[in-house]
Amino acid sequence: MYRKTHQTIQEWYQQSGRLDLPWRNTDEAYYIYLSEVMLQQTQVKTVLERYYIPFIERFPSLKSLGEAPLDDVLKMWEGLGYYNRAKNLHKTATLVDELPSDIEELIKLPGIGKNTAHAVAAFAFHQPVPIMEANVKRILCRLHQLIKPTEKRLWEIAYDLVDKVNPFDYNQAMMDIGATICLPRNPKCEICPLSDICKGKEEPERYPEKKKRMVPTREQNILIRIYEDKLSLTQREGKFLHGLWGFESVKIPECASEYLGEVTHVYTHFKLNCKVYLYYEHTPEHSDYFSVDEIQKLAISKVDEKIVKLFLATM
After folding, report:
1. Catalytic residue of the set 36, 67, 98, 219
2. Is 36 a catalytic residue?
3. What keyword terms does UniProt attach to this protein (predicted)?
4. Domain with CATH 1.10.340.30 in the chain
């Protein structure tokens, strides 16, 4: 049914696709899996320039990743954000030395959802299955004039449209079309290889309906405890920034603490404003104290990096 469309997509990909991306030039399932995890919520440019190659050089196999301490993994992940991705990547590596090719078995592994499982199956094992990342969703919505599609409907369409003969190039092409042509704003419909079958090309920006997002602001008081020129840090628990080292958040700063200033950091779902205070301890009240040089070797969040810079700037 879509033979001509598949041929057009294939020709477009060979001429205009991002063929040189390193994870598109390997059959190593671990490297492909790593790229898929890194690319969740992160731009290709950032992953390519700063994280993908150094991570593989440090952990060249799934086995070596699983044998490494989580702290080392988090340190290599530092700056990528969404640290649960790194934790789940590491946990998966402790469970298996090789990734299974079966989608249902992949989904059972920590942090591997339906789309990541499909991506690994399609790209590492060349199975005739579609993928469903944000760019592809937008394409499918425009092809079928879908304003509020359900996940079930999108997967039905995706399976119907996928090129079962060449799923690797097809899926990579769909992502590239979404990233470079079928844009959220001002899509380039006049050069789109899917124009012939697109029902929404007259008003593409109607599909899908855009969700309105309100980004709340959170306020925190951060207390830097200092004892004999070393700073107290704790290893975070809970879902957010779990496993990273960071400064203590307090409701009310100590009476004798000194106000240093404020740092701000914007996350995807909220903005964080931190008022930072310094408190000199006469006796160590916590268990973990580090020099500034030692802190540089720990896995800490971007906001804690900003707090360290503020501390150094005021000393």
Report:
1. 36
2. yes
3. DNA damage, DNA repair, Glycosidase, Hydrolase, Iron, Iron-sulfur, Metal-binding
4. 3-206
| CA 205 and chain centroid, separation | 25
Cβ contacts of 287 within 8 Å, gap of 6 or more: none
* Secondary structure (3-state) at 99: coil
Residues 189 and 130: beta-carbon distance below 8 Å: no
| Alpha carbons 253 and 275: distance in angstroms, whole number | 10
Residue 28 and residue 261: Cα distance in Å, rounded?
48
* pLDDT tens readout for residues 130-159: 999 999 999 999 999 999 999 999 999 999
Q: Which CATH superfamily is domain 3-206 in?
A: Hypothetical protein; domain 2 (1.10.340.30)
CA dihedral 72→123→108→44, nearest 10 degrees, is: 40
pLDDT in tens, 41-94: 889 999 999 999 999 999 999 999 999 999 999 999 988 888 889 999 999 999
